[in-house]
Design brief:
The protein has about 260 residues and is mainly alpha-helical. The chain has a domain at about 55-210: MetI-like fold (Orthogonal Bundle). It has helices spanning about 1-30, 40-50, 50-85, 90-95, 100, 105-115, 125-140, 145-155, 160-170, 175-180, 185-200, 205-210, 215-225, 230-265. It is found in: Cell inner membrane; Cell membrane.
Length: about 260
């Protein structure tokens, strides 16, 4: 029975791998056919030579970094305080953090434009205001990933004991939060940040209504509408970027586990 279960497990793993990788391999092969009759990286060369590619990529990367920083500054102290002082509110906060999965991005962006395009804010009338509004929307969009990562990290440590020990030594709340608690959940925060960055880099709906072609997501959509091989190469580049962030998360988690094992010995 055990051998039969093992064979079935391998069967479903191989089937899932084929379902995932075959379309990816087909897309990659198609992206190499920009030069007739031979395989080449011509489509990739055209993408990297396009000044809009680098401009939109850098813009979205900047927005992603600002989003991760703003999300951490908002969510980390909130989750810490709830675990320390208000554990009865955990269920409510978890529900709120999952709302971006329920509310469509199109509803969110139209609501933001409706509220912040008129008096007294007028954020959509200026370059800086629009960017601020974009980051705020992305903070909401990435909240589930940041919240879950930070909450899991805080769950793995004794928040109350660390706080009481720091207070007994005369530490203030800022010192406790950023010099005692933060180093213990650094890996969890970085993991959530990488997921947030990967989400922002490929986001289309909010970016298209707020900043248009200045962002990487709308740029990929525009290329997909006008250029066949280049759109396939962009899909591969976007996929590689996402997996690079996931690989960084795995490396950080592996380092954390090794540190914990060394500390246990």
């Amino acid at each position: 029975m055990s051998k039969r279960n093992t064979l079935w497990s391998w069967f479903w793993m191989i089937l899932g791998g084929l379902y995932f990788f075959l379309p990816l391999l087909a897309t990659f092969e198609f992206s190499l056919k920009a030069r007739k009759g031979v395989y080449s990286f011509l489509a990739y060369e055209r993408v990297f030579a396009d000044p809009l590619f680098l401009r939109t990529f850098i813009f979205s990367l900047e927005m992603a970094v600002f989003t991760a920083l703003a999300g951490i500054l908002l969510i980390f102290p909130t989750v810490y305080w709830i675990r320390l002082k208000l554990p009865q509110l955990r269920g409510l906060i978890e529900f709120v953090s999952m709302l971006p999965f329920v509310v469509p991005a199109i509803v969110l962006v139209f609501g933001l434009i409706r509220v912040f395009s008129g008096a007294p804010f007028f954020l959509t009338n200026t370059f800086t205001g629009t960017n601020v509004l974009l980051v705020a929307a992305y903070v909401v969009l990435t909240m589930p990933y940041l919240y879950r990562s930070i909450d899991t990290g805080l769950q793995a440590i004794d928040v109350r004991t660390l706080t009481e020990a720091a207070q007994s030594l005369g530490a203030g709340w800022g010192t406790i939060l950023f010099r005692v608690i933060l180093p213990n959940v650094r890996v969890s925060i970085l993991s959530g940040s990488f997921l947030a960055v990967a989400t922002v880099m490929g986001e289309f709906t909010i970016a298209s209504f707020l900043v248009g072609i200045r962002a990487f997501g709308p740029y990929m959509s525009l290329v997909g509408q006008n250029k066949t091989y280049e759109s396939s190469s962009l899909a591969i580049i976007s996929f590689a970027l996402t997996w690079a962030f996931i690989g960084l998360i795995q490396l950080l988690n592996r380092g954390r586990v090794q540190t914990q094992i060394a500390g246990a010995h």
